[in-house]
């Protein structure tokens, strides 16, 4: 019994071939940036969304995660999920769904929480930018 085998292959896949790694220009008016940390371990995740102002849908998404494999897999999975979603839909994604999809063990639940916090924080940043722009 190896430790690796206790991880679901989807985690390994997202960890080895993370989707949408990178950054969007933070100062673009249609980009929202979420930067969050996990108090449990100090890992950090940055997740950015670009929103089409007419449709209100997320048209691009990038992340950078300085953390464990489960955090990287959770953020990679999150970026795939939210592309094309409205902000409301994206804001409703719960970490428990991610954990279930990736079969994360209980000690790795907080890693998926990082992805939920990051998307919420990106949405909040986008909305506050928009409200400043419309003043
Ligand atoms: Fe070390 Fe998360 S605690 S990578
Ligand atoms: Fe802390 Fe995964 S984010 S161990």
Overview of this protein structure:
It is a single chain. With 135 residues, the chain is an alpha+beta fold. It has one domain (4-125): Sufe protein. Chain: A (Alpha-Beta Complex), CATH 3.90.1010.10. The protein has helices spanning 9-16, 69-82, 87-91, 95-102, 109-133, and strands spanning 31-37, 44-51, 58-66. A three-stranded antiparallel beta sheet has the order 1-2-3. The chain is elongated and about 45 Å long. The structure holds FE2/S2 (inorganic) cluster (FES) (2 copies).
**Largest sheet features:** 3 strands, antiparallel
Determine the structural class based on helices, strands and strand pairing: alpha+beta
**Mean pLDDT reading:** 92
| Oligomerization state | single chain
- Principal-axis shape equals elongated
Low-confidence stretches: none
Q: Which CATH class is shown?
A: Alpha Beta
Function: Scaffold protein for the de novo synthesis of iron-sulfur (Fe-S) clusters within mitochondria, which is required for maturation of both mitochondrial and cytoplasmic [2Fe-2S] and [4Fe-4S] proteins.
GO molecular function: 2 iron, 2 sulfur cluster binding; iron ion binding
Pfam families: NifU_N (PF01592)
Cofactor: [2Fe-2S] cluster
């Amino acid at each position: 019994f190896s430790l690796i085998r206790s991880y679901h292959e989807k985690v390994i896949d997202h960890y080895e071939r993370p989707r949408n790694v990178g950054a969007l220009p933070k100062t673009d008016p249609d980009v929202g940036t979420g930067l969050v940390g996990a108090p449990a371990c100090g890992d950090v995740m940055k997740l950015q969304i670009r929103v089409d102002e007419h449709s209100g849908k997320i048209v691009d998404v990038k992340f950078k995660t300085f953390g464990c494999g489960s955090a990287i897999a959770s953020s990679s999975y999150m970026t795939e999920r939210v592309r094309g979603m409205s902000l409301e839909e994206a804001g409703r994604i719960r970490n428990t769904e991610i954990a279930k999809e990736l079969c994360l063990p209980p000690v790795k639940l907080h890693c998926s929480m990082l992805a939920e916090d990051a998307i919420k924080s990106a949405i909040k940043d986008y909305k506050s930018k928009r409200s400043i722009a419309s003043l």
